[in-house]
Amino acid sequence: MSERISRRKLFGLGAAGVAAAGAGVVALRAGEGGQGPTAARVASATDAVPFYGEHQAGIVTPAQDRLHFVAFDVITDKKAELDELMQEWTAAAARMTQGREAGTFGAVGGLPEAPPDDTGEALGLPASGLTLTVGFGASLFDDRFGLAARRPAAMAPLPKFPGDALLPEISGGDICVQACAHDPQVAVHAVRNLARIGFGRVSVRWSQLGFGRTSSTSRAQATPRNLMGFKDGTNNLKLEDEALLAEQLWVAPGDGQDWMTGGSYLVTRKIRMMVETWDRAPLDEQQQIFGRDKGEGAPLGRKAEFDPVDFNARDAAGQPFIKADAHVRLAHPSSNGNAHLLRRGYNYVDGSDGLGRLDAGLFFMAYQRDPHRQFVPIQLSLARHDALNEYIKHVSSGLFACPGGVRDAGDYWGRTLLT
C-alpha cells in the first residue's frame, strides 16, 4: 500500500468521525436524526445535511438546485482495493458534505512536494446542502469480485422500451455517485475529488451536469418547471409521505438481498427534448399533451395545481378534458397499479448538436422499492402511448442499487455488500 493511501486511510476515517459528530449536532438541533422520512430539512442554501443515518442522504432530502451525476467503471480486479476505495470515499464524503475539505491535509496543508489532499476549488464555500448518494450497477455483479450471488433480483436488466435510442457510452456503469447541492461548484468539487481519490481503481464512464430541479421532494418546496415550460412532479412522492415511502420507496427486510434493506433502486434516463419543434406547437396542443394547464399547472378541467385529477370529467362537447394519450393520465398511479416513484430529475443543456439545435432536456432520476414493479410498467405505458413521444427521445439509461445509509464513522458505503 502506498504512503498516500495509508495516510488517508489512517486519518480520513478519524476525520469522518468528527464530521459525524458535526452532523449529529445539526440533526439534534433540528430535533430529528438521520436521513429517514422526517430527516432535518435544509434551512438555507448554505446549510450542511447530516451524512449519517438509516437511509442515504440525497433521496428524500429536499431537492437541491444543482446536480453532478457520474458513473464509474471499476478498473481494478482486486476486491480488497474496491473495499478500501469505498472506505476512502466514505471518509471524504463525510467531510465534504459538512463543508470541509476532502482529505485531512486539505488543499494547502500537506507537503509541498506531494499532491494536495483536496483540489481546492471549494475553499471558502459553505456546505451548500451537498449530498452524496452512491449506487451499484448490475455490471459490478459479474465474476470479478465474487458478487454474482449477491445481485438483487430487482437488478435484472430493464427491457428495451419502444422508441429508445440509447447510447451505450452514456449508459450503465459499475458505480454511480449523485452529487446534489445549491452551488454547482460544490457539487463538481465533490465528484472531482472522488474521481481523484479513485485514480487507478475506477475511471469515469460518463457524467451529467444538471440545473433547475424538475421535481419537489418536500411539500415545503414549490413545484419547478421543466424546459417545456410545464410544472413537473406535482404528484411526486414527498418526504412527508411516511406510509407511502415505506410502501413504495425503501427496500424492506425480506425483499431480497439483506444488504439492500433500507436502500432504494435508482433509474436514470437522459431524455432529450426537441425544443425547437415543441416551441412551434400551439399552446392548446401542449396542454392537451401534458393534460395540465401550462400556467397554474392544474389538471385540465380543474382550477388549482393540486386539485385531484378527474379522468372522468368532460367538456361541454362531452369529450374528456384529459385525453387517453395525455402524459398525466398514462403516468398516474391509478393507471399503473398504484405504482409511485420518487423523482429527483434536473434540466440539462449540453450545448448544441452541431446543426443549430439545442442538446437539451431532462435528466430523469427516480427512486423506488422495485423498478420492475414501478418504473417498468409506467415507462412501458408512456413509451407505447404518450403523445409527448413526438417531442422527446431517450438517449441513456441506468439502473443502480443504492444501499441503506452509513450508520456511523465505523461504517462505509457498500460494507454489507463487500464484506
UniProtKB/TrEMBL annotation:
EC annotation from Swiss-Prot or TrEMBL: 1.11.1.-
Cofactor binding note: Binds 1 heme b (iron(II)-protoporphyrin IX) group non-covalently per subunit.
Cofactor section: heme b
Intracellular or extracellular location(s): Cell envelope
Domain of life: Bacteria
Catalyzed reaction equations: heme b + 2 H(+) = protoporphyrin IX + Fe(2+)
Pfam family, one: Dyp_perox_C
InterPro entries in the record: Dimeric_a/b-barrel, Dyp_perox_C, Dyp_perox_N, Dyp_peroxidase, EfeB/EfeN, TAT_signal
Keyword annotations of the record: Heme, Iron, Lyase, Metal-binding, Oxidoreductase, Peroxidase, Signal
Domain annotation Dyp-type peroxidase C-terminal: ranges: 223-406
Domain Dyp-type peroxidase N-terminal: 56-211
Keyword Heme: yes
EC primary class: oxidoreductase
Signal sequence annotation: none
Chief location category: other
Key word Heme present: yes
Function, in words: Involved in the recovery of exogenous heme iron. Extracts iron from heme while preserving the protoporphyrin ring intact.
Family affiliation: Belongs to the DyP-type peroxidase family.
Protein known as: Deferrochelatase
Species: Streptosporangium jomthongense
Protein encoded by which gene: efeB
